[in-house]
Design a protein that fits this description.
This protein is an alpha/beta fold. 30% of the residues lie in helices and 16% in strands. A 6-stranded mixed β-sheet has the order 3-2-4-1-5-6. α2 runs parallel beside α3 and α6 packs across α7. The chain is globular.
Amino acid sequence: MSGEETNIGLTSSHTFSALPEKTKILLIRHCEATGNTDGVFQGRIDTDISPNGAKQLDLLALRCRNMKIDAVVSSPLLRAVRTAEAVNQYHRLPLETEPLLAEIDAGEFEGVKWEELPLRFPEATRQWYEEPWNFQAPGGESMRQVYDRVWKGILQVVEKHRGHTICVTSHGCAIRNLLCRAKGLPIERIGEIPWMDNTAISILEFSGETCLGVPVLGDASHLSPETSHFSSQSWWKQ
């Protein structure tokens, strides 16, 4: 990956123009968790990782072993923390948590089998599939609230670690909202953002609080077909 090249010319007094420091976010979706394998809407349910998730983490740790990483930040939910710990295996940095990067609070959707959702919550389920920008489960937060919350969280991480490379582990719906905003898209265009496989890596680049772009989107090339959750998943991804 390479960023845009900038030519810095000499002024008449032979002084260089200063450029703001670039901050890089390695945004990683958590590994496969038991909620994924059980086919339930996870949301804030604090599920542990699955046996296949552990294999995914071994592959992720090896991929990240020689990456430049200056800080590791995770959603406080266990599946994201376990993923951050795997990335940190060879870096041994302090592990930070950021509650604003947690998954959507899906209220009464949480713990419900995907195939049961249309029967129990027909209108909210329709919104999830057809108008995700308007989605709000009974008793949960709206997608618009997630869109604002996770962006506030990532900007706090950028401000704290300005000019460095930070690994951030989060969740499917949260990451989809982050990428939508990082690409400069309104929430009404969130459907244009693909879902990420478990442990997939996206890269966001910032100058100050301005996102310069998303040069890498959902790269899960470290996974084999046997360990990819997408290859075996039949219900909707989260």
